[in-house]
Amino acid sequence: MVAEALTSDAVHLAAGGVGVAVALAAVYLADRRDGGWTRALRARLLWGVPWGTLLVIAGVIGVYLFVQSGIDHPNRPVVIPFRSWSYFYPQGIVWSSFAHASRGHVTGNLLSALVAGGLAEYAYGHFPESREVDDGERLAVRLRRLPTRLRRFPRQLSRLPSRIAAVESPGANPYVRAFLIVPGAAVAFGLASALFALGPVVGFSLVVFAYWGFALVSRPIAALVAMAGTTLVGVLYDAVRVPVAFAEASPSYGVPGWANVAIQGHALGLIGGALVAVLLFRRRARTRSEEGSDGAEGTGRWSNHPLASAGDGGSIAGPTERSALVVFGALLLFGASRRLWAVYWYLGNERYELYRAVGVGLLALLAAIVAVAAVSRDEPVWPSRAVPKPKTLRDGIRSSTPAAVGLVLLTAALAAVAGPAVVPNLVTVEDGDLPGDPVEVEGYQVTYAENVEDRLVSVVDVEAFGRSTSVRTSGVIVGNPDRQIWTTAVSRGNLAFWGYRAVDVGGTGWRETVWVQRVGWVAVNGGPAYRVDAVRNETRRTLFTSDPARAEPRIDGRSVVVAATPDGFELSVVGGSGNNVTAPLPAANESVTVRGITLVRENGVVFAERGETRVRVAYRERYDGRQKAELAGSPERAASAGLRSTRSGTLRCRCRARPRCGGRTARQRGTRPRTRG
Q1: Strand 643-645 relative to strand 613-620, pairing
Q2: Which end of the chain, N or C, is less packed with Cβ atoms under 10 Å?
Q3: Please, what's the b/e burial string for 217-251 (b: 16 or more CB within 10 A of its CB; e: otherwise)?
């Protein structure tokens, strides 16, 4: 009993919680603060809480649970209909920035949003010019008065409308800024970014990167520290969710990490957030200067600095952060850690080309542009040629300042990143049936094909630098012309690794699951022969059969060929004298004689026998992902429990009515470029 208790999750979680609590208490007592821990937060945030960020996070969780059916299928939400496929599919545009591909995807983005969004909201502030906050009371006193404050809360809540109305300017009202402007800006940015995202992007990371861009400009050093904070938050989340984990070395399948991320969308968000920060803080600095609140004349180049605060010539960010080098370094370090250097091209069939050196150079230029726009002087570049009040474009160029040049370059960078997405998003997917015999579900078509033209990438025919948008693809293809959808939902390699995959289609409030299974036999040294089936509502349909495969061993000048058919598999004896003869694959522990050669099936292996000669000619195809899941007892094993194998090796769903087993399998990794944000 003691051993079981020591290995339980509850004991480990309690032990870890005690350790964290003791550490925090020790630091608190050593610092001996009486309210100082929260004073800075309460000076800029309403009650010291980033309400806007929390509201946005709650909204994203709501989309995942109720719009994508994540509440019933937490590991595998509906994804395909909520991508930004085209301007002619408004539903994708509306939901793509707030939908996610898996539980890991949504939790990763939201944990990062909690840190970056909180920092950005602190820099913006619920109080325009901050406010004075007293030292407060000691913790023991505040705890004793907590019941009284809770009893007063309903009365304070009833007074909230009058307190909001008492502020002349809505933009200066802390309640409006906390509960309307901050979350509204995040939602607006998510919707706008979806319009200029290249490819069928899904995920909140476009807004998260906007948070980071805002924070890196407003408080670059704090943002660098917060980058480590995201790791800490992720570790704490994993520790609470899975206190004890077991792992072992095992094969895996997936595209390169940088090829499954919306690099263009991330750059778009970062630049957009940085641009908003530059405009906001320079406007604040200009307002303070016009009102004569910028301090003494000795502030010099920092008098109109975007981070300068009123009074004393100080800075919200602190004097060490008022440097172009600091902003440049912060952007460069952040971009390198978030793979913004990963400029690549999709070559088709899960092949990619990475331009790492060019990407690093572009990242450095972007960081320099942001630094120039954020920190540069407001004095003219050529004072001798400057015009006090320029009225023409020529006079404006002669009187330009480094800050203005940086702002123009930053705007141009935003346009350069966003511009390439406009034309592809204006092109619609051509109507037409998919290859094979597709399964149709409420306007969706699900099929399997190999080496066909990728209609998603080739919607715009472009050839440059030896590369083309006309590429080929293989795998499970999902199409819906009404929704402008055409995508390789599961790649050929992914299906070959797992053996079966679930393809979820649907829309807001509904979903259907189509199971796709690959069943094959491998000819010795001759490759596989396989069939791909689709199962929906206990109805099986063959989508694809591969070319036959010939085994290398020869018996009396003859070879064995394995072929897939819609109903099973066949074995043929070819070569030598006489006609080729074909026979069905024998059942387990049975045999068949073809042209004097006995083909014996022993479990998952087929042997060819003639006289005293016995050689292996074929064996059942193995799927590493399925075996790994079954051994580990993962969700994949639970999913397969709802499916059974027939004699022909196809899967049939045990569920009655609409399948419910679809939500118990782990997420399928995306295989297309620029798909996840």
Answers
A1: unpaired
A2: N
A3: bbbbbbbbebbebbeebeeeeebeeebeeeeeeee
Spatial separation of the C-alpha atoms in residues 74 and 57, rounded to whole Å: 17
Rounded CA-CA distance 468/503 in Å is 29
Report the relative pairing of strands 439-441 and 444-453 from DSSP bridges. Answer: antiparallel
DSSP string for residues in 184-243? HHHHHHHHHHHHT-SSS-BSTHHHHHHHHHHHHHH-HHHHHHHHHHHHHHHHHHHHHH-S
The answer to whether residue 659 is domain-embedded is: no
The string over 293-331, giving b where at least 16 C-beta atoms fall within 10 Å of a residue's C-beta and e elsewhere, is: ebbeeebeebbbbbbbbbeebbbbbeeebbebebbbbbb
The residue out of 608, 625, 642 marking a domain boundary is 625
Q: Do 7 and 42 share a domain, yes or no?
A: no
- pLDDT(234) > 60: yes
C-beta of residue 565 within 8 angstroms of C-beta of residue 526: no
- 592 dihedral zone (left: phi>0; alpha: psi -120 to 50; beta): beta
Between these two residues, 281 and 552, which has the higher pLDDT value? 552
pLDDT on residue 394: 65
Distance CA 313, CA 296 (A): 7
Provide mean pLDDT across the span 540-569.
92
Phi, psi of 137 (to 5 degrees): -100, 165
Same domain, 19 and 142: no
More confident residue, 314 or 528: 528
Predicted confidence band of residue 150 (pLDDT cuts 50, 70, 90):
low
What is the residue-wise DSSP string for 407-472?
A: HHHHHHHHHHHHGGGHHHHHPPPPP-PPSSS-EEETTEEEEEEEEEE-TTGGGS--EETTEES--E
Clarify whether residues 37 and 27 are in a common domain: no
Domain range holding 260? 33-420
pLDDT of residue 463: 53
Distance of CA 213 to the CA centre of its chain: 18
Q: What's the domain count of the chain?
A: 3
User: And the tokens for 322?
Assistant: 């008022």
The model's confidence at residue 624, banded by pLDDT at 50, 70 and 90, is confident
Evaluate if pTM is beyond 0.90: no
Angle (CA) 562-568-573 rounded to 5° is 30
Q: CA–CA separation, 65 vs 75, rounded Å?
A: 11
The token pair that represents 517 in the structure block:
């299974």
Confidence (pLDDT) at 600? 93
Query: Would residue 624 be called left, alpha or beta, if left means φ above 0 and alpha means ψ between -120 and 50 degrees?
Result: alpha
**Least confident residue range of 171-185, 247-261, 273-287:** 247-261
Q: Do 11 and 57 reside in the same domain of the chain?
A: no
pLDDT range class, residue 647, cuts 50, 70, 90: very low
CB proximity list for 71: less than 8 A, separation 6 or greater: 65
Least confident residue range of 115-119, 136-140, 469-473, 515-519:
136-140
Lowest mean pLDDT among 18-27, 325-334, 626-635: 626-635
Q: How many CA atoms lie within 13 A of 27 on its CB side?
A: 6
Tens of pLDDT, residue by residue over 37-58, are 667 777 888 888 899 999 999 9
**Residue 120 and residue 8 share a domain:** no
| pLDDT at residue 655 is higher than 80 | no
Q: Which residue has the higher pLDDT, 229 or 648?
A: 229
Q: Classify residue 70 as exposed, middle or buried by CB count within 10 Å of its CB (0-12, 13-18, 19+).
A: buried
Across the beta sheet with 439-441, the strand order is 439-441, 444-453, 472-480, 485-491
Here the tokens at position 308 are 């300068």
Phi, psi of 555 (to 5 degrees): -120, 115
Phi, psi torsion values for 334, nearest 5 degrees: -65, -50
Q: Which amino acid is at 269?
A: G
User: Do residues 9 and 114 share a domain?
Assistant: no
